[in-house]
Amino acid sequence: MTRINSVAELEELRKGILSKKDPDKPCIAICAGISCLGLGNGDVISAFKEEIRKQSLEVEVIATGCHGFCEKGPIVVINPEEICYLEVKPEDVPEIISQTVIEKKVINRLVYTDPLSGEKATHMSEIPFYKNQMRVLIGHNSKINPKSIDDYLAMGGYSAFAKALLGMSPVQVLDEIKKANLRGRGGGGFPAGSKWETTRNAPEEVKYVIVNAHEGEPGAFMDRALFQGNPHSVLEGLMIGAYAIGSHQGFIYTRHDTPELRKNLDIALAQAEEYGLLGKNILGSGFDFKVEVHFDVGIFVSGESSALMRSIEGKAPEPRPKYIRTSVSGIWDRPSNLNNVETWANVPLIIGRGSEWYNSIGTERSKGTKLISLSGHVCNSAVVEVPMGTSLRDIVYDFGGGIPNGKKLKAIHFGGPMGGTIPESLIDNPLDFDVLSKLGASMGAGDMLMMDEDTCLVEVARYFLDFLSGESCGKCVPCREGIRQMLNILTNMTKGKGVEGDIELLEELSEVIGEAALCSLGRSVQKPLLSMLKHFRDEFEAHIKEQRCPAHSCKELIALEGA
Amino acid sequence: MSEIILQIDGKDVAASEDMTILDAAKKAGISIPTLCYHEEIEAYGGCRLCTVEADVRGRTNIVAACLYPVQKNLVVRTRSEKIDRIRKMILELLLAHAPDAFDLQDLAKEYGANKDRFEKDSSFCIHCGLCVRYCAEVKKKNAITFVDKGKTREISFIPEISAKECWDCKECFPLCPTEALQAAFVLAKAFTFPSSFLESAPAK
Ligand SMILES: Cc1cc2nc3c(=O)[nH]c(=O)nc-3n(C[C@H](O)[C@H](O)[C@H](O)COP(=O)(O)O)c2cc1C
Ligand code: SF4
Ligand code: SF4
Ligand code: FES
Ligand code: FES
Fold first, then answer.
1. How many Å from the N-terminal Cα to the C-terminal Cα in chain B?
2. Residues of chain B positioned with their CB less than 8 A from the CB of A518
3. In chain A, which end has fewer C-beta atoms inside a 10 angstrom radius, N or C?
């Protein structure tokens, strides 16, 4: 690789890459996302490599990021035709090579079959799951090799960065992001433009930009899907942000327990550096920027902005009070702008295609698309990307495939341990930051947990508090002790030991924690419980007054009933 | 340094801009209860007992007085129905761990806190962090540390350091609002000073 010194050289390089690519050459894209790997895709990848070596074929095999349809993994896509094979086993590999790759025949057994109509769909674009999504962020995952910057360049990568760097002033870039109404995807929905501006305008000369790729919410897996599958798209967003904000040092804070992601990130950074897209005088513009990767210490609170910055400083991830915002005083007390993986990945799209295009997608106050991870009682656990404003019903039924085992949907929980639950009756609402918070369930990071009629919400509330009891830092009293007591009370309820007044005590604890805790973890721990009390209070009352679990789920109560 | 005028409990109070609400209140002779605050060490914000109401630009915020920086025109209320309710609950949560601690009992009386409201977990330590931070910041020895996280967080003496430093110091002992530090030290002593521990054991 040689260093690129100007936009002209970048375009020259891009042309060169494209001209060397033979569009008809078969390329086998095998999903190496966390879910498919868990289902044994490592063996499928080795089987393909082995078979191709044995037959000395001219075929490329790439281990890609998550394709989205995780439920049907391991997934293999044969490009350029985009023939999509589901639930592939290593034994299928010789047949795929001889039939599909060499003879161009489709193996019917491995393609998608509609569970209702029995109809088959061979190509990705025909499978209903993919067809109705709007995959502007994650759509490239099934086509590109995340370990190859050339693949990213071939699809037009880094042209938005080049446009910003040499065609726009930092303020113009900032204005474009503001006009796009980009809101943070990490949970708060805070306008990215005004946060950037705060850091940009902070007096301190040295400023930092950071990618939050901690993704600690149980049930959230879209950030990893995107970052592992297309690391350069996030990196490009970060670079554009750095230019707009006036930062020359970026940080990526990510999970320590995802080796594939780690590998892809290291490679992406090394390749960007070799091309001179990171480093000094980037593309001859005079702009310098470098990026460091830091790993979390496996505790949920380290995704909180001030705790995350502490952790990057090498200290324990304990939150600091936010009387001075981290965008003004963050890492080493310097202005630090933190955004979520998905937020950053939207930036090149906005700069490349313009804020007007971005504003054409979504609702009045929630623009663009949103990645959603579906889990729980849903036929397809999956990562989907839909325009903001899509109805929740469509997400659950069209993409999620509905509720398994003929059960009825009872409720949907958004945003994990700091989120909220809505009942099935509200399912015709749109995916929208403000609508969801009005319903008592913030969008969170975009993780939706479906719960069927057999789910006990007292138990779910208990589960989230149990999770948090080990994942808060434990520094401040309302959070550490409040969680402990709330957990005690709920655990007692599930065992038939609830007493009159428990609900009121939970509400009083909720108020104190919500107001007096130090950081937003503590100030949010009561949210799942309060949303469940709002919509399902009678279920909590039944546990106390009648020692009855209406969902027939709490084992000790069922035993009591039987007695 | 320029002077700032703010209002605390209806009184105009003058403060310098590097002060917190707690500093300003002290200067004006207004008392705010604290458990994790100590003049010689950096404010921590752990106990939240110093929680007060602060009106900023027409909005009432609930903030920790020991950390919140003073601002021009800030209006602070150190007592209100809400503040008292928060303090009462914090005390009740702590009394579940250390029902006999004197500092807590006095405060409990003032705020009407019931020491039996919550299920007991007599681990004594209320995690004020005074011992840990005093040792780190004032003595610069780091002989005590917090280990673990969330509800299993606790203090721990680091044997290699404490064997050298603690015997002749023990300055943190009087800071502890409960018996926890003593208990932890006795436990640590068993490992770090096996001989002296045996000596102090009652004779057969
Ligand atoms: C306890 C806690 C955990 C969090 N974990 C994450 C996380 O894993 N990823 C994330 O992007 N944001 C997380 N956040 C939100 C961040 O603090 C921050 O608001 C976000 O990264 C800002 O990016 P955005 O504006 O692009 O959403 C967490 C917040 C809290 C309070
Ligand atoms: S609210 Fe919880 S996580 Fe946040 S500082 Fe307090 S104990 Fe730690
Ligand atoms: S041992 Fe005592 S001084 Fe140390 S943290 Fe616990 S309560 Fe505070
Ligand atoms: S991990 Fe393979 S499709 Fe999601
Ligand atoms: S004295 Fe302020 S939080 Fe403890």
1. 66
2. 45-46, 48, 64
3. C
CB A49 within 8 A of CB A58: no
Cross-chain CB nearest to A476 (options B46, B69, B146): B46
* Phi/psi of residue A451, nearest 5 degrees: -125, 130
**What's the predicted TM-score (pTM) here?**
0.94
CA A98, chain centre distance (Å): 37
Instruction: Decide if A509 contacts A307 (C-beta within 8 A).
Output: no
Quick one: tokens of B161? 């350091």
pLDDT tens digits in sequence order for chain A, 563 residues long: 789 999 999 999 999 999 998 888 899 999 999 999 999 999 999 999 999 999 999 899 999 999 999 999 999 999 999 999 999 999 999 999 999 999 999 999 999 999 889 999 999 999 999 998 999 999 999 999 999 999 999 999 999 999 999 999 999 999 999 999 999 999 989 999 999 999 999 999 999 999 999 999 888 999 999 999 999 999 999 999 999 999 999 999 999 998 999 999 999 999 999 999 999 999 999 999 999 999 998 889 999 999 999 999 999 998 988 788 999 999 999 999 999 999 999 999 999 999 999 999 999 999 999 999 999 999 999 999 999 999 999 999 999 999 999 999 999 999 999 999 999 999 999 999 999 999 989 899 999 999 999 999 999 999 999 999 999 999 999 999 999 999 999 999 999 999 999 999 999 999 999 999 999 999 999 999 999 999 999 999 999 999 999 999 998 888 776 65
All structural domains of chain A: 21-142 (3.40.30.10), 157-359 (3.40.50.11540), 369-452 (3.10.20.600), 459-562 (1.20.1440.230)
Helices (H), A495-554: 502-516, 527-545
- Does the beta carbon of A507 lie under 8 angstroms from any beta carbon of chain B? no
Total Cβ atoms within 10 A of residue A120: 14
> In chain A, what residues touch B59 (CB-CB under 8 Å)?
none
Give residues 95 to 134 of B whose Cβ lies within 8 Å of A: 96-97, 118-119, 121, 126-127, 129
Give alpha helix (H) positions in A388-476. 392-394, 433-438, 457-471
Amino acid at A526: Q
Structure tokens given for A416: 């994990």
CA distances from A485 to A378, A465, A479 (A): 32, 10, 10
Q: Token digits for A239? A: 């670079």
Give me the DSSP letters along B110-130: HHT--TTSS-----------H
Q: With CB atoms and an 8 Å threshold, state whether B151 touches A517.
A: no
A23: cis peptide before it, omega within 30°?
no
